Amino acid sequence: MENEITFFFDSYALIEVYEKNVNYEKYTKANAITSYFQVYEVYYSLIRNGYTKEEIKDFFEFLQSICIELKFEWIPKSVEFRKEYKKRDLSYSDCLGYVIAKNLGIRFLTGDKEFENLPNVEFVKKIK
Question: 6-123: CATH homologous superfamily?
């Protein structure tokens, strides 16, 4: 995978990268962006799953470096997207991330089954 490729990493993808899922290894060489909403979910999930603040400190600092500034117009677009796919039970932050990726012309990287087969999604399964 070339370094020029950029993906929007959702919280699922970020956690898989942190936990060194081999299916996500090639994406560690791509340019990554995310939002503070995904970082919030990642931090909460890692702490909830037993990682200590010290264990995730470096990763948390790295995440801060890839967060982008949000545009106000993405909020109504993400609400419309969530409403359109209401039956999929998508989170607010994932809908926002999807809209950001679409508006920036990059792929939305996730392993969340609710996004499988949607346009503009790079779906990568978790190792069992």
Answer: 5'-nuclease (3.40.50.1010)
